[in-house]
Amino acid sequence: MLSVKDKELIRDSWESLGKNKAPHGVVMFSRLFELDPELLSLFNYSTNCGSKQDCLSSPEFLDHVTKVMLVIDAAVSHLDDLHSLEEFLLNLGKKHQAVGVSTQSFAVVGEALLYMLQCSLGQAYTAPLRQAWLNMYSIVVSAMSRGWAKNGKDKAD
Ligand code: HEM
Description:
By secondary structure, the protein is mainly alpha-helical.
């Protein structure tokens, strides 16, 4: 559950970041590949993501960066009724299971998200703000992970 204070911290901090999704998303994914370079190989686009630089200059990869930022944007817009995103997030988890992304990798994306927030917000990046974002991201990822697990199970049955 998100507290009233969590929601306020998230909304206020996203206000300017959300207007510039692409560059902030690039900072986030750049960090993701530092944390786990093996994730590069999961982006099998026509412009191959052989290296971080290749990936960051691939239009399809940059589309994915924007897609991730739009999911975050949707979560921020639905802080009062995150459960309304449940079906969408379950499906998103299923799709990621199908393309070989592990649920542990969602957690690494979370670390990269916090890094991006820290870089962008500077002194406004406080412990309560970090915790508020972690709380929100955990809700998103837990729904994605339920969809992920369900897809794996459906395939095994
Ligand atoms: C290491 C983590 C991740 C990897 C390797 C990954 C990889 C992929 C791949 C290969 C696709 C299919 C091709 C494409 O649409 O570009 C995809 C689709 C997508 N991903 Fe991710 N992804 C990751 C994490 C996330 C996260 C955390 C989110 C959102 C919070 C997200 C949002 C999306 C969306 C919205 C799509 C499009 C789904 C659709 O076509 O309906 N991804 N991802």
